[in-house]
Amino acid sequence: MKTIFHFLATLVVYIGLDLLFLGILAKDFTRRQVGFLMAEKPDWAAAGLFYLIFAVGLLYFCVYPAHSAARAAFNGAFFGLVAYATYELVNKALLARWPVALVVVDIAWGMVAGAAVCWASYHIGRLLGIFPT
């Protein structure tokens, strides 16, 4: 039960942080970069599936193997780099007008978000008694 609550808390932290970034902080930037490709409304099913998979990846690859909050944050930054670079660099390679500025900003965001969520998730795990204090 602790693991399920830990997952849900991590998921909420990541979704909240990412929606803050996408919906407020980078909204105008993203529209300027790729507004010509954006849908009228997000595909929430696809977004939800991404958030579920990414949160599981953060826990499995970054938080659970870490022995400290600092290591969890480092692991999360690296995982964010790999995941977001995969998406952005494939888009840059295959799509005619994919902007370099978006590649750089999105990869940086993946690293920041991964680090922040894993740091918070590690501390949540400590509060839940999953990790030693």
Structure report:
- By secondary structure, this protein is an all-alpha fold.
- It has one domain (2-127).
- 80% of the residues lie in helices and 0% in strands.
- It is built from 5 helices and no strands.
- Helix 3 (44-63) packs across helix 5 and helix 4 runs antiparallel to helix 5 (100-127).
- The longest helix is centred in the last third of the chain and has 28 residues, at 100-127.
- The protein starts with a helix and ends in a 6-residue tail after the last helix.
- 28% of the residues are buried.
Question: Gist?
Answer:
By secondary structure, the protein is mostly helical.
List strands and helices in order, with pairings.
Blueprint: H1 2-25, H2 27-34, H3 44-63, H4 69-94, H5 100-127
Helix pairs in contact: 1-2, 1-3, 1-5, 3-4, 3-5, 4-5
Order of helical and strand elements = HHHHH
Compute the separation of the termini in Å. Answer: 19 Å
Question: Segments where pLDDT lies below 50 for 5+ residues?
Answer: none
Number of strands: 0
Q: Characterize the largest beta sheet: strand count, sense, and whether it forms a barrel.
A: none
Could you state the oligomeric state of the chains shown? single chain
Structural class computed from helices and strand pairing: mainly alpha
Summed over residues and divided by their number, the pLDDT gives a mean of: 97
Number of helices: 5
